[in-house]
Write a structure and sequence with these properties.
Layout: H1 2-7, H2 9-17, E1 20-25, H3 58-70, H4 79-88, H5 91-99, E2 104-110, H6 116-119, E3 135-139, H7 140-155, H8 168-184, E4 188-193, H9 195-198, H10 209-221, H11 234-251, E5 255-257, H12 277-282, E6 288-290, H13 298-307, E7 311-314, H14 318-321, H15 324-337, E8 343-344, H16 354-376, H17 382-400
Parallel strand pairs: 1-2, 2-3, 3-4, 4-5, 5-6, 6-7, 7-8
Helix pairs in contact: 2-16, 2-17, 5-16, 7-8, 8-11, 13-15, 15-16, 16-17
């Protein structure tokens, strides 16, 4: 990259100094819980025994080098040595070190991840790491599950007790009310759905009233007081998504969808964003954000952004979970069809502060390498490439989420 840096100094300065809006991430663990999850989750979506294999990926080997540099360790420091070193650091210092110099300007935090309430900082706690205040992305399935649990626990408070009356309509009314309240909250930037994990992205655009009511009642009949509720019936999940899309469209809040890359709780055959096409057509007033570059379905996602005005594409999570050349290949596929005013960056940072450090630095590296290639192919001028970089890292998210954040005047490109 050294040669490219010397040849395209303006582009290099733009890519590596432009403030970045992280349009999709999750809260950090608090110091008391900083070892609650295996650190290998930083570089892999695997769980259980499969997570042990993650340390042998190219992504992990690269991350080891970059974290060694962050911590001032010798070149060649291995993964276990990095883990040992970080455990010795004061956690507050580790957080500050990981964000220092990243120029991440604002965080849009999905705080519906399991474990957030008890082990992680709230969205406002994260303001200490960025120039601008953090915003929330409301996970709709978490909202729905909380409502259902409150309804079920009231109607069936104890095992062996005769269940009380149950009215599915109450759930619909309460969910609609809370989604409207969230949509109007000044700190809420948008909504997020993980229906991809639950029943897949082939969400029906047609409301099946009887199916919804039957699913709700069956869920209630199997409910055990005191146990967490999990939405995993297609009729219920589809209903929640449709109601959220309607509310989001009314209040002009984007809806993010997990697509592609995920853990083994996900059916990869139901994770392609192409399955969302009927829903995208049915809700033209609602903006869809396809997360994680839809990897490995990146071209499908790019196609959807090119033919539907209400579809945007995020290219997060592949940093640092995919190799360098894999990241660049995915970004090239994004740029094959996707309008450059509809591309968004995110870290998908979660739990560990280093996920934000690796997320932004690897993204900037891939962005520079791909854009300089486009210049050399005579597809873009250097100024045009720099504009693409600024749009991707800052302007597109600033506009889409109505953040109204200031951009450095000295970096503006006329």
């Amino acid at each position: 990259m050294t040669g490219g840096r010397d040849r395209y100094r303006f582009l290099h300065r733009t890519v590596f100094q432009c403030p970045a809006i992280d349009n999709h991430c999750h809260p950090l663990l608090l110091g008391a819980h900083c070892d609650a999850f295996p650190f290998e989750g930083l570089i892999s979506e695997a769980h259980g025994d499969a997570l042990e294999d993650s340390v042998n990926t190219i992504a992990c080997l690269r991350a080891s080098k970059e974290l060694a540099s962050l911590f001032g360790l010798q070149k060649g420091t291995n993964w276990d040595e990095i883990k040992a070193h970080r455990r010795k650091l004061d956690y507050s210092d580790l957080c500050q070190l990981s964000f220092q110099g990243t120029n991440i300007n604002c965080l849009l935090l999905d705080d519906g991840l399991g474990g957030v309430e008890t082990m992680a900082g709230n969205y406002q706690w994260h303001d200490q790491f960025t120039e601008n205040k953090s915003k929330r992305i409301v996970r709709i399935e978490t909202v729905a599950e909380t409502i259902i649990e409150s309804i079920f626990s009231r109607a069936k408070p104890n095992l062996g007790q005769e269940p009380g009356p149950l009215e599915p309509k109450e759930f619909e009314i309460r969910l609609g009310q809370i989604l409207e309240e969230e949509a109007q909250h000044p700190d809420v930037a948008g909504f997020k759905s993980v229906v991809c994990y639950r029943t897949g992205l082939d969400v029906s655009s047609i409301h099946g009233g009887a199916d919804f009511e039957n699913a709700f009642i069956l869920m209630y009949e199997s409910y055990l007081p005191g146990t967490p509720v999990r939405l995993q019936d297609k009729a219920l999940n589809d209903f929640v998504v449709r109601l959220a899309l309607t509310t989001a469209g009314r209040y002009k809040k984007p809806v993010q969808f997990h697509t592609g890359l995920g853990d083994n709780d996900l059916n990869i055959n139901l994770a392609t964003p192409s399955l969302l096409q009927p829903l995208i057509k049915a809700y033209p007033e609602t903006t869809f954000v396809l997360l994680h570059a839809a990897y490995p379905f990146t071209r499908e996602a790019g196609y959807l952004t090119s033919v539907y005005h209400n579809v945007y594409l995020d290219w997060g999570e592949i940093f640092p979970m995919v190799s360098r050349r894999g990241q660049e290949a995915a970004l090239k596929q994004v740029l094959e069809l996707c309008p450059t005013n509809k591309i968004l960056w995110s870290s998908d940072g979660h739990w560990w502060p280093e996920s934000f450090y690796l997320g932004i630095n690897q993204a900037r590296s891939a962005l520079f390498n791909v854009l300089q290639q486009l210049i050399e192919d005579d597809d873009l001028s250097e100024v045009q490439a720099a504009k693409v970089a600024q749009n991707t890292l800052f302007h597109n998210a600033n506009r889409l989420y109505n953040l109204n954040l200031a951009f450095p005047t000295e970096m503006e490109i006329k």
